[in-house]
Structure formats: C-alpha cells, structure tokens
Amino acid sequence: MAGIWICAEQTGQALELLQAGKNLREAGMAGGLAVLSWPGGPRPEDLGAGGADEVLLLPPPGDGQPLEAFAPAVLEEARKDPPDLMLFAATARGKDWAARIAGGLDAGLCSGCTALRWDSASGTLEMERLLYGGAAVLRIAPLSFPVLAAVLPGTFRSGPLTPGREARIRNLPAPPPSPVTVLERRPKERQGQDVTAARVVVCAGRGFEKPGDLALARELADLLGGALACTRPLSEELHWLPEDLCIGLSGIQVKPELYIGIGVSGQVQHLTGIRGAKLVCAVNRDEQAPIFAAADLGIVGDLYAVLPGLVQALKETTPA
Amino acid sequence: MPVFVACFKWVVDEAYIRRTSAGELDLSSVGYKISDYDRNALEEAARLKESAGGSVVAVTVGIPEATKGVKDALSRGADQAIYAADPSFGTLEASGTATILAEVIRTRVGTYDLILCGEGSSDLYDQQVGIRLAALLGIPCISFVQKLDLEAGRVVAERRLEDGIERVAATLPAVVTLLPDINVPRIPGVKDTLSASRKPVVTIGREELGLPAEPRFRILSLSASRLERQCERFGSDEADLRRFAGALRQKGILR
Hints:
The structure holds two protein chains of two kinds.
Chain A: E1 4-7, H1 11-26, E2 33-37, H2 44-49, E3 54-57, H3 71-80, E4 85-89, H4 92-105, E5 108-113, E6 115-119, E7 124-131, E8 136-142, E9 147-151, E10 168-171, E11 180-187, E12 200-204, H5 214-223, E13 227-230, H6 232-237, E14 258-262, H7 268-272, E15 279-284, E16 297-300, H8 303-317
Parallel strand pairs in A: 1-2, 1-4, 2-3, 3-10, 4-9, 5-9, 12-13, 12-14, 14-15, 15-16
Antiparallel strand pairs in A: 6-7, 7-8
Chain B: E1 3-8, E2 10-12, E3 18-19, E4 25-26, E5 32-34, H1 36-52, E6 55-62, H2 67-74, E7 80-85, H3 94-109, E8 114-118, H4 129-137, E9 141-151, E10 154-161, E11 164-171, E12 174-178, H5 190-196, E13 201-205, E14 217-224, E15 232-234, H6 238-250
Parallel strand pairs in B: 1-6, 1-8, 6-7, 7-13, 8-12, 9-12
Antiparallel strand pairs in B: 2-5, 3-4, 9-10, 10-11
Helix pairs in contact in B: 2-5, 3-4
C-alpha cells in the first residue's frame, strides 16, 4: 500500500489530517489512509470511524523514553513499504518526528503546510506554505516521493465519523532505545481560557508601559468574554506573560471571531498568527503602525485614554 | 575542553519586504541579517563557553555576500567561523542545508561536543535543519529547548511542548535546537566588532564539497501574501468609540 500515512499526538489532530487525506483521495490521489497510534495515542476506534483504512500500532513507549523515540520504528516501516505522503500534525513533537523521518528517508518535508491540493490531470501534489515570517506564500510540488508535510493543527476541519467503521491493525515493532531519556515531565497548568479556542482574543503589545497596566487589557477581555494574549516582546523579553500566550509564527496561531490588538505594532510574524481571525481590530497611537493595514477596524489613539472609554462604550452597547 | 558549534544563516530581513501595487513580492530594497533564532544559538554557545570553557565555532552555509554575517557572528562571541559559500546556496532547501552543514562539521570541525541551532530560520522557517543534521551525523537531537545545562558528558535540556515541559538528557555529542526565549542575544559593542575582524575564518567553496544535495521540491509560485482587511479608521474621542462599539455590535460580535 502506498497511500497516505498520518502521524498526530492526539485523536482530534489525526481526524483533521484524515479529512485532508480523504480530500486528496477524492481529488484522485491513489492509495489508502493509514494512521499511526500507540497506547495512549490517537484512539484506533475513532481513527476507523474517521476514515482510516489501517492503524499502524506501536507498542507502548518505553520507560523514560520520549515519544520521538518512535521515529526509527516508523522510519523502518516507511522504508519497507513507502507511502506517497506522510502528514504530521505540526506540534513540537510532530515537527521533530517529521524532520527525523524526512532526514532518514532523504525526503522533502513541507513544514508549516497551509494547503494541499492534488491535481489529477498532471498528477501533481500542490503544497502551500508561508515564507519570510508570513510576508510571502510559496506553492511547491514534490520532485520525488515519499514526501512529508507538517500541518498546523486547525488547518483542516475534521469530517463526520462513521461509528462502527473499523480500521485494520498493523503492529509495528518496538523501536531501539533512544539516546535521549526523559528525566521529568511537568504537565502544563491550565490557567484561565485556552487562547487558541477563545471566541475573542485581546492581545497586549509593547505599547503597555508596565506589567500592572495589563489589567486594562484583561478588563476588556473579561467584558467580551475573551482571553488575554500578548506579542513576543512581552513574553520573551519582559516576561510579563507566559510564552504560551504569545501569538505569532513561532508562538500560537489563533482563529477567534474577534481579535483586538492593543498597543501592538503589527510585525509580520505576529500578523501571521492572526491570519485566521474573522475580525481584526487594533488600538495604537501610531497611525503608521503596520497593524492598521492588517486590521478591519482601527482606533488611532493612546491606549491609556482609549481603553477606559472603549470599555464604557462597549458596556453601553451591550444589552443589560 | 568542550567545542561548541553554533550554526547560523544569513537571511533576508523580512521587515523590508514590500508588496508592489500589483500585489507582487518586492525584494528590491531588502537588507540582510543573521536569522533571529540563530542569534539565540550563537548567544547560548557563547554563554556555555563563558561558564564551561572551551571554544565556539560558528558555521554557516550561504551566498558569498554573507561575509558580513560571518563577521557579525564572530562579534557575538564565536572564536572562529567556517563558511561554505556559493551563489547557488541562496536557494538551498532545508535538506540541502543540513547535508552541507553535516559535511562541513564532519570534515572541518572534526571533534565537537554540542551543536546549537535555532528552532528554524526566520526566512524559510522550515524548522528541520537541526534535526536533519543530527540524523545525518548519527547523534542525538533535543528539539525546541528553552533551557540548557551541561553536566559530565551529557546535556540536560528543558523542551517546551504543547502539553508541558519535558526535561531530557542526552550523551554528547548532540544537537540542540533552541527556542527564542532561551536567552536575550547580546548586542555586539565596538570592541567585539574590532576583535571579530582578527578571528580566523575558513571559507569553503562548492567545489571542495561533495555532490550537492538534489532539491526535493519545485516552486510553482511565490507571491506576496494578502491580508484582505477593511482598514476602517476610528479616532479616540467618545463619539468614535461609540461608533466602534456599534460596528462590533453590527457584526454580531457583541453578545
């Protein structure tokens, strides 16, 4: 079986990629859909219901072994029976897997893939990704197969499930022990709303003068039922907010109904993280700030004067 | 004494990229810089040397014009630089860059302890060169590292993953790919710049390297990305803020 292999850490991510695979197959790309799993990984019954023909089942990861340790086993299987395309959910581990396997296969890897299209007339797999921090869009086609792509979670929508539909199970052998060992795992403490799932995102930028002033942005977020996020300088240089609230190409990508950037200048990497926002608003005192060219509604003014007035105006227009 | 290898890339500064009125990509007035994330790699290597001793070799693969970047890297704490240069290296894919880096490190550096790479380059952001490099050299790789320590014969690193922090260890030699928050890169002073011009640089031409890696992709198109936004402006007086709130309401955002 050539076809498409899918690797994701979570069931939801695997189902999104399964839908992407089904779309390619409907467009005429040949072969079955196989999904990688392991005890604690994506659920095989959901993968079957989501359209997988086969589940490539790995044994449980060894004690003190990172999930990346699976890569050599997957690589071996891919060498024996090469798929045409391998799709990875572009989480940190997913990107690591993809690069290791691509390196092992000496194959091309389209990272941060934003679109996939099969042109059956020419037999071309068209892949799209962003360059230069998001300033440019590159469309490429592989010159050889297998080819790999790492796709950001949320790029594709998962399709309907067919309950009871089952996938064949192919057992993969255990990989050799990894030279990298895990000493400690510290699960993320969930604080407040998940920004990537929030309907409204209020993003604080460099325009804020001191950390205590973020309360103004937080008040706006609370009023709109939204989550607070930030730009890279606030998390990386000033450490006012944690890294996982940093929006941008190398941070989180958000797709809210409403994004409001407060004191955000609008560097291209940041704008890449809000491409999927339905409505983009901005408050900045510099009318030349690049954010205004990327915003639907922009308020030119000092955030310290605008925010209290804006909160008041929003309260008045919100029905009691 | 440990040998640290910091890999860097000389890239187009995306802040200077413009869109023509026809919507095409305009690279005519761009400047160049050391890729943002690679500055973190150079910084971390310099810090490790400052605390553990040893030396730092900066390695790059790039176009001949990247000489300026080599000097920049040397002003950021590296002791020497190795520079594989060819006009064709400006369009290398990640697989090609990793192949040349591996050959250069294997044949010109020889013995090394830790190779430091940025998590990705700020132009292509493929996020795979460091990991592929480790695969080619057959040594362990720890990716997406936010904190790094050297212990007897091994590297201990904290990786930031979607579900939390993973602290891992690997024996040396190893490759690490670094997240940008691992450090704040220094800004070289006049003294650093002056001493950089006295440090040794080995330049390697394409003809001194093995067969170049074949590209894995062909380009169908490269265009300026479009952001279709309304760009409506409001002032900051009370009337305008009300008008803004009204616009949000009209769009069904306010519940």
